[in-house]
Design goal:
Layout (H helix, E strand, L loop, with lengths): L5 H6 L2 H14 L3 E3 L14 E4 L3 E4 L10 H10 L1
Antiparallel strand pairs: 1-2, 2-3
Length: 79
């Protein structure tokens, strides 16, 4: 898989960016989870949970994207 240039990354939607991250993670042996319809889920949970020998959570944003208050609060609890 070829790395995207910075200009190409800046044009990706959050969904496209997430697909790229998941594809790279899976190549590295990570198991990935994403809640596909979060409207009925607790607000603030990160976009991705990736598991191998440890758990990594990631909230993915486009360039200039901002975290919601709920996302900041959940990130602090997970830290």
């Amino acid at each position: 898989m070829q790395a995207l240039s910075e200009a190409a990354r800046n044009k990706l939607s959050e969904a496209e960016w997430q697909s790229e991250v998941m594809a790279i993670a899976k190549l590295g042996g990570w198991w990935c989870y994403h809640t596909h319809d979060s409207r009925r889920s607790q607000s603030g949970w990160p976009d991705l949970a990736m598991l191998r020998e440890r758990l990594i959570t990631a909230e993915l944003k486009r360039v200039g994207g901002r975290l919601s208050t709920a996302q900041i609060e959940v990130a602090a609890r997970l830290a």
